[in-house]
Each structure stands twice: as C-alpha cells, then as structure tokens.
Model the fold of this input.
Amino acid sequence: MTALPNERTCPFDPPPGLAELRAHRPVARVTLPAGGEVWLVTRHDLVREVLADPRWSSSTDGGFGPDQPLRAITPEPGMFIDMDPPEHGRYRRLLTPHFTVQRVNRFRPGIERIVAERLDAMERLPRPVDLVAEFALPVPSMVICELLGVPYEDRSAFQDAARTFADLGSSQGEIEAAMARLAAYLAKRVAAERDEPGGGLLGELARREDLTDEELVNIAIMLLIAGHETTANMIGLGALLLLHRPDQLARVREGAQGAADELLRHLSIVDLVMFRMAKEDLVLGGQEIKAGEFALTSLSAANRDPALCPDPDRLDVTRPKTAHVALGFGPHQCLGQNLARLELEIALQGLLRRFPGLRTAVPPAEVPVRENAAIHGLVALPVTW
Amino acid sequence: MSGAAEAAEGGGREVAMRITVNRDGCCGAGQCVLAAPEVFAQGEEDGLVVLLDPSPPAELHDAVRRARSHCPTRSIAVG
Done:
C-alpha cells in the first residue's frame, strides 16, 4: 500500500511523489499518516469531477490524526462547508450576493487603505520586520472585520483570537480557548446586531428571521476561518516566492493582471485536505469505488497537471488565467475567491511598491515553514529593505 | 443548430454562438464574469449568473469558452 505523499521538500512545490501518481495511478489507494485508507485523486480532470459530482458527499470530518478517524458527519447548523446540495445551497445563496465580482470591487478603496496603514506601521518598526505578523496576518483579518461589520473597539480582541488559530505555536488548549472566546464574542455581537442591525454582513444576516443565532455564529466563524489564514498564507508565501524570482516580482510590481491566480495555482496552499465520501457505488477514472469509501483530492497535483497548461511547474504571472483548482471546484468553490484575489493583488503590489529594496533578512533556508499544517505557509518571514 | 449556422448580423462569416445558462446550478463564484465580462454578469440581488449576450460576436468566443471551462458548477452551455 502506498503512503500518502504529503511532505513538501520545497515550500513552493507539491510533495514529491504526487506527479508520478498523477501520471500512472491518478486514482490510487493510499494510507493516511494517521491511519485509514482513501482514494487519492491527482489528475486535474478527475479532481474536478470529484468536486463537482453530487454523488460525492462533503459531510465528512477527521482524517488528520489518530484520534480523528475519517468519518461521515451530520453538519452543525449553518456550517454549510460540510453540507451537500440542496441544503448547502440554502446557506450559500444567502451569502453569494455579498461576494460577487462587482460587490467585492466596492471594497477596493477600503482594502487599499488597510494595506497602506499596515505598510505605514511596518515602516516605523525597527528592522528586520516579521512580514507575517506585521502584514500578512493583519491585512485579511482587518478586511474580514470590515466585511462582517465588527466595531472598531472590538477588533483587537477579534484579531487576537484569529491570530491564535493561525499561530502554529498555539497549543490545542490555546486554540480551543480562543475558539470559545471567539464564539462567545460572536454570540454577543449577533445579539447586538439582532437588536440594532448594522451596515456589515452580520447586520444584514441578522435581519433575517429564518436564521437562528447559532447558525449566524457558525456562519461568522466559518467566514473568519476560511478567509483569514488562507489569504494571510498566500500573502506571506507569495512574497517569499517573488523574492526568489526577481523577474516575476518585477511583473507583479508593474501590475500583472493574472498574478493572483498564477500564485494561487503555483503554490496551492490548500492541499490534501478536501475529503469526499462516495454516496453510492461509482466509477472514477476507470476505478470502481464503493459507497462509503473516501476520496482525497490533491489540488497541488491537479494544478501542476501538464493537461492544465503548458509548462505547469513554471511560475509565470503573465500566463492567461488557467482553470486551476486552488480555490476548489464544484458548488463549494471558495465563496470569497474574488475578495481573496483583490486582497492578494493589492497587498503584494502595495508591499513591492512601498519597499523596492525588500529582501529576506535571513538566509532562504532559515525562513521557518509551517510543518504538518492544513494550510501551507510560513511561520514568520523576517524582511528588511 | 445544424452545422455551420452563419451569423447574419454584421455580415460575419463566423459560426454563430448560442449560450444558455443554468441559474439553478450556479453558485455565484463569478468565474464567468472574470473570463468574459461583456457576456456575463452577476445579479445584484442574488449574485447568480446573468447572461448579457446570448449570441456574442466572434471576438468574444474564446473568452466564452474559457468561462464555460472555468465555471465550477458547469452551468454554462455553448451551442
């Protein structure tokens, strides 16, 4: 039995071993590090097939540790990331109008202001500066606060909790305590929004009588977690990759339109975490699969599939937008993807324009990379200029 | 459409394109708007796909095919 190739030897590239599976066994039976067997799916067309096919259920949990066996679950109220159609659509459609291309573009001036403020703050700090702590993490966290309508006076507590989730040094106890604090805060916030709905997304949802308080709190937690660490890690890891590639960095600074999507494709920071369970017997890529068996999609392998684009292992920020799956595929494809693109574009361009001499303050091999994390990224990125 | 139906309007000799969208399947990702903003939009109220031009001119056909290929719910059909 093949072990899941899940260790990156380079922070920018998929784990070695996935490419060979993609070429020879695109639907392969593998063992998970924590035990259990899944069908690992590595080819671009087959990954898309799994994620778009309603015969594969999203209502699963576990798979990451020996004490968390992979299993089917009944989703918590409002946690529509775990739900299947048609239940999933009921929640997703409440949020869809808030994340359209045109609605998100209205956030551009707000994001530009947040990015400029963080760059100002960075400029005042003694160098070297940790780009992750001072820029990559606070920018998306502040954007989400604005989007949800978290009042200014509450934002530091909100961000402390969010940072605890994202901080690899946090213990399980600290994470659980931070989650409890955040849930308690959001419950209070939801109650306040029910009394007097504000102008943010929480206020808008609080006007709806068909959503319970519990659903509202769970939706808010989901938006926070989905939108914070992912975007933060893309900013941090994306900046490091560009510092290694001055030619590409120059294109991004000049405003290359496709840079965000190409960085998403190339880095595929969310990988090997999207499990699905077969609801019925089916065939995938010629492989018979039984009801109740699990599949694990490799988004990084799919995004480096030679069938997706020419020279897929090369970073080219001027490449026409590909049909990459870094943001998922199917009805669960990232709700906040257009916000993420905008944040990534504004943050990286702003950073590179403000500090033309930006460079890492430690040798490249000493930049600490997150190990065993669900979302790839950097623990810290010491920079100077 | 039987074979090469020709676009009568504008006297073009390009094969006409007929687009249909399935709003019931749409999840509002906006990929079509990114690929072909002249042809697709998202509804202000529901965020779901709005077809601006079901039969766009030839110079937009590649963009429309990209929109179809990028659509995560395969809610765009091109005939």
Notes: Chain A touches chain B at residues 51-52, 89, 92-93, 96-103, 321, 323, 327-334, 337-338 (CB under 8 Å).
